[in-house]
Amino acid sequence: MYYIYHIPGKKIGVTRNLNSRVTEQQGYASDEYEVLLTSDDIEYVSTQEIELQKAYGYKVDRQSYKNLINKNKKMNINATEQTSTFPVPLNKLKGRLLDAIGLTWSTPHGDFTITKDNIKWIVAHARTSMFNNERSYIYNKAMANEFISEPTKKKKKKNKSNIYDLIRAWATEKGIYKSGDARTQYLKLMEEAGELAEAILKNDEPEVIDAIGDMVVVLTNLAKLRGHNIEDCIASAYSVIKDRQGKMINGTFVKNSTTTTTSNKFHNFSTNTL
Questions:
Q1: Burial class, 267, CB count within 10 angstroms (exposed 0-12 / middle 13-18 / buried 19+)
Q2: Helix orientation angle between 163-174 and 205-225, rounded to the nearest 10 degrees
Q3: Of 42, 43, 48, 67, nearest to 5 (Cα)?
Q4: 266, pLDDT greater than 70
Q5: Secondary structure class of 114 (helix, strand, coil)
Q6: How many CA atoms lie within 13 A of 140 on its CB side?
Q7: What are the sequence ranges of the domains in the chain?
Q8: Which of 21, 22, 4, 8 is nearest to 56 (CA)?
Q9: Which residues neighbour 85 within 8 Å (Cβ) at sequence distance 6 or greater?
Q10: Cβ atoms 93, 86 nearer than 8 A
Q11: How far is Cα 181 from Cα 175, in angstroms, rounded to an integer?
């Protein structure tokens, strides 16, 4: 059954659960609102809601209740390594989640399903996206720690023994190694570096994590396209720096004799190019 409810001086809306939608979510007791109409016909209540909003002089919803419900059921949740992003702002997240109960999406930390038990946690831990105020996100690992059982998490961890192998398997499946090239991956790396810089300047830690992760993925693929494994590149770099001596200057570690080495390199470059 669908209910068209009226909160005097505030709004007119539609719900299938008055207690959850009006009392729990919006904070109005049963004597602070009235039910204007009930019906089991979603087409009818969707039309009547808009007509009543106009008649009472309230803001009219841009989408009908029916279309909104259908959209909620098909809510496209974007999952990355670190976060799951919902296409809805924080102030509407709880209602959209309640309408999408049963929806399941996959993340690197496990499969999540929207339930009455986890909606409260999601809403409490969600944050607004720095790039779009109409979107909100949660950390996948935090939700996995809260709702996925230990045996399941251990199994996932065991299957994820080498993240670079998983990245390469994904890239192979997507055809990146077959049709891509190192130059386009480098351009992608610069794009991700720009997003990282923006996230750092805005002090948005979730986006910092996301951008760093994206850069690692791109570097893994770039190395493979050049015939290398990123693990070998990292090991090679570490073998060079592990015994390096130097000091911190203006927030940067500067190795000993950097000035001399740089000067010599510049001199050699200038000599060779003249």
A1: exposed
A2: 70
A3: 48
A4: no
A5: coil
A6: 20
A7: 2-69, 75-157, 162-238, 246-273
A8: 8
A9: 77, 78, 79, 129, 135, 136, 137
A10: yes
A11: 11
For residue 175, is pLDDT > 50?
A: yes
Query: What's the pTM?
Result: 0.38
Instruction: Take residue 237 and report the two structure tokens written for it.
Output: 């770099």
Six-digit token pair at 257? 């004799």
Cβ-contact 190, 211 below 8 angstroms: no
Between 270 and 173, residue with greater pLDDT: 173
pLDDT tens string 8-17: 999 999 988 8
Q: How far apart are CA 269 and CA 274, in angstroms?
A: 9
| Location of structure tokens 């670079």 | 164
Tell me the one-letter amino acid at 4.
I
Note the pLDDT of residue 260: 44
Query: Which one of 1.10.10.10, 1.10.287.1080, 3.10.250.10, 1.10.760.10 gives the CATH number of domain 162-238?
Result: 1.10.287.1080
For the stretch 180-218, pLDDT in tens is 899 999 999 999 999 999 999 999 888 899 899 999 999
